[in-house]
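Hi L.,

You mentioned the student needs an example of a multi-chain input paired with its predicted structure. This one should do, with 547 residues in total across all chains.
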Amino acid sequence: MEKLLHLLENDATLTHKELALMLSKEEGDIKSMIRQLEKDGVILGYKAIVDWDKTEKETVTALIEVKVMPQRDDGFDKIAEKIQNYPEIKGLYLMSGGFDFTVLIEGKTMKEVAYFVARKLAPIEFVTATATHFVLKTYKYNGVIYNSPKKDLRESDGI
Amino acid sequence: MIDHELMLSDTLKYIKPSGIRKFFDLLADMGDVTALTVGQPDFVTPWHIREAAIQSLERGHTYYTSNSGLPELRAEICSYMKRRFDLDYTPGEALITVGGSEAIDVAVRSLVNPGDEVIIPMPSFVCYEPIARMAGAVPVIINTKAENGFKLTANELRAAITPKTKLLVLPFPNNPTGAILEREELQAIAEVLRGTNIAILSDEIYAELTYGKRHVSIASIEGMRERTIIASGFSKAYAMTGWRLGYLLGPAPWIKQMTKLHQYAIMCAPTVSQFAAVEALKNGDDDIAGMAAEYNRRRVFITEGLREIGIEVMEPQGAFYIYPYIGGFGLSSEEFCQRLLMEEKCAIVPGTAFGECGEGYARISYAYSVRHIEEALEKIKRFVDKLK
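Structure written out for the whole complex:
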């Protein structure tokens, strides 16, 4: 099961047949395993990893530290529910340490992101402070090194 | 004026350059070619192995090691051989070499006298015959047959043996055919050799790359260990071709003499590579499994892809090559591969590069991404459709 998840996490385009082969299992078993993992919410989706910097599209990514008023019981979850639904927000984590949430946000321009923080994020009830850090360059994300050489470095066939 | 040609060794001049090389030079000038020619993994060496090498440099391990190699590395090789192939060797029966290639060279040169016969099954890796010739030996070629799945059979071996036979080269898992020898087949070969004074050079560089069945070494067959020298290395299993690191495992009296030859010719294998190899053996089993699973995926993909195009092919069981029959289109292997290159910019190696018996065949490497293989198959299909 764990191996299957690792393979898919690494390359979601692997077919049932290929997975069966790589795990020495029957194709049918793989199919039902994946179906079950999807049903159980272990596998949540399949997406392409895009390096937008190589396209015409302008994007900017920021990591925002968010501090909130200390909450009792499921207080953090309640605040998270308010934050998580904005489509601009790509990631949301509850943190240990000096602040409470990390928000990963994507926008067209720095200004747009700044406005979002000022107008949408900061005014949310119990949010006491935010600190926005813009991403200048992505080296690695989701296990993928962005500028690894795509060129075949093998200079020789051997003999 | 000196005649440089005249001054060279006659034996060396007689040796032909590698046919793979020749073909590769041709495509080097061509630019954007979809090649399926390369005989080395496309994976970069796993990071923890590279890191161990860097660390060894940081710590100042920049000196020679002992001639036979780091004791720790030889010990790790022995425990690896036990763990993976159930073979019992001691560090005194191991010699670390500069790649599997040096291992083969040292083994052959240490075992043969001028005039001895060396039996070489073909098609196979291109180095055995030239190395045997340079040692003054007489190569005796056995052309393995398609109907036997390119396996060496006991009968073929029996027929090739003469009183002068000194050494049998056993190149399985095989480059270029992808054939492997299973236990029963090895037992039949062992039966022929038992009671003779014939040594075996078992080239097991692809031992980790078999699909469905684990590799069996002839050294594990009763009575064979005492006459077997195993040549192997790190290039294929751990994607470490550029590190140039291999080894020999065999009876201590042989290893002792082979170490002497290695000592005078090489001194010792690169120290940095030896430290990397220790890490590979200690923590690399998962890397091997991951890469083998990926090769297996490509193997099935390319086998089916070729069959769909209408090319007859045996399903390879080992290494990362497939060896299709391309003789049904009215072209020689070389013509087929050259026209495929010129007309579709797709490169594969003509079977004749691996011996005359390779006529009618081609070697295709699947040490490439599935996307790349897919692209090459489209080109091969277009070309074959034109020929039909």
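You could point out the following to them. The radius of gyration of chain B is 21 Å. The mean pLDDT of chain B is 96.

Best wishes,
N.
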